Amino acid sequence: MKAVETNLLKFLQGTKQFIIPIYQRKYSWTISQCRQLWNDILRAAEDEKIKGHFVGSIVYIERGLYQISSVPQLLVIDGQQRMTTLTLFLLALGKAIEESDQPCDITRRKIMNYYLVNNDEEGDQYHKLILTKSDKDTLISLTSKKSLPEEFSQRVYENYNFFIDSIKKSEIDLNKLFQGIAKLIVVDISLDRDHDNPQLIFESLNSTGLDLSQADLIRNFVLMRLEPKEQAELYTEYWYPMERSFGNLNDSNLFDRFMRDYLTVKMGKIPNIQDVYTVFKDYVYQQSEQTVNEIVEDIYRFSKYFVKLAFQIEKDKNINQVLVDINALKVDVSYPFLLEVYDDYGQQKLSKEDFITILELVEAYVFRRSICGVPTNSLNKTFATISKEIDKDNYMESAIAAFLLQDSHRRFPKNEEFIQESLVKDVYNFRNRNYLLRKLENFNRKEIVDIESYTIEHIMPQNKNLSSEWRESLGISWEEIHNTYLHRLGNLTLTRYNSELSDKPFLVKREMKGGFADSPLRLNKELGRLDVWNEDEITKRARSLADLAVRVWKYPQISDEVISKYSKNNSKVETVSYTIADHPELKGEMLALYEELRKRISNLDSSVRMEYKKLYVAFKTITNFVDIVPQKSRLRISLNMAFREIKDPQGICKDVSNLGRWGNGDVEFSLSSVNEIEYAMFLIKQSFEKQLDDE
After folding, report:
1. How many other C-beta atoms can be found within 10 angstroms of the C-beta atom of residue 261?
2. How much is the pTM?
């Protein structure tokens, strides 16, 4: 490697060509960064004390490339953003000089011939700077004073015009402005392909431009390792089509997400989104038997599945409809599992019918959990690892068993839990309420109703000041009924006549134009036959819709024999079993206190399990989050978390990290009265939620 500090204009002089490799990101400097460069040049132009201004390094490979060409062609590894911007500045300055009446020491023709073109060459070799595919033609058009191409680079054109406007508005002497750019200094770093590793040098450089995205780093890492011909083939066949499918990576976040999910599939663990590039490099180094071409081909194949999932552009309408439904639930954490299943379908390991069944299984699993309020903290790990539990020689039965065998906080809620929670759920304020009502309305329906053009209607009005007709209809407990059932499933429907229906009495809502009896929706069919709307009818309708929901979001049917076949716990282990009788301290007032606390802890979530130990009672989801040690006059409570993590405004907790105690964790406090349970639950919930967050 040779590095030397040099004047920018001197660096550009002479017959040579700088080529931006195809793997580099497109030109991306913003107006803000151009303004900073403009201010730097202006300051250098106006301040005679400034003898030079450093603008960064330009790194390129000098030997072993493009040897057929008579023009030395230099592959730029780092510095393309500033080189492009300075080229645009010189173009703008040349145009300003050409249009100016003031005498200038430099002409546009000299700027062009010295710094921007190889005057004695033709074709592409005429231009000193060749950008990547999406920017190249725009820069050539500006240099050649030709019309812009139909699909021109917005950034290149905008930044060129920024410099044009800035020069005009500044009214600066153009000779001075040229002197300003003549003071710019760069570090000229030329690499030797035989001795230098361009990728390592590229990673170690500090750029003053935009931070590289994970997508940029991955693309450079993959393609920079290849010879130019291989780069072009790989880029054209795989990488460029993939970038286009991601919207030309105008938002690299989506590609970063895809690579995280791809690596999750391949490595079985979820990388941090900021570490995707580092993990990807480790993955490539581990694939000693795969060529770079094979790895990129594999990435490209999975990217097509990801794009279909993210944008719902699957050509098969039946499959795409399920993708639309899954997308409505906003459950991106399922993508690693769905990518692998999609690939199995693409590789014909799954039939179309079985693929749809698994997609619907995921949809039902996620939605039932959502209705039942099961914490979502662990979903990403569930979907990252569940494919390991599938026997692909017995794909369907093992996939279904894998979901049904999830327990505790990972469970697939059964019909009883799903129905019960559907009956009491605040559906109106539920994030997925439109999805819920759309699926109920369109179940087994060929003429699909677009509910986006409908609004949610409260059959019993939201207005707390109910009319006398409504109070009479609801009965003596009308206020309690209103508070209890207002936002529940049984009281909600869809209409396009929301403002007309308003707070009117039920019979008016039923009979008016656009009312329930006049509605084409199935959700309103039974309402059109009723004469009264009260607590009894609300609960009947809720139960009817909950029963329908069980059919829409099915709980898979599979025999106990098959479940047992895939269960990890089918071998019985003899263990010592303890009961409440092993805790004689639990009697009288202590027993009553314990029972009340036990009930409150168990109600935190249906995944909470209680287990009697020899010296304490454990409550767990993933593992113990609270342990109770019964004593004669109090319950000693241990929380499984670090003492520094507990929020304890009353200061009743003790740090027992260095003490020998029964129970798990570093936090301990005592409970001796029912009046203290509310605060005790405030502390216990912290341990419960922390365990789920850690999971």
Report:
1. 28
2. 0.68
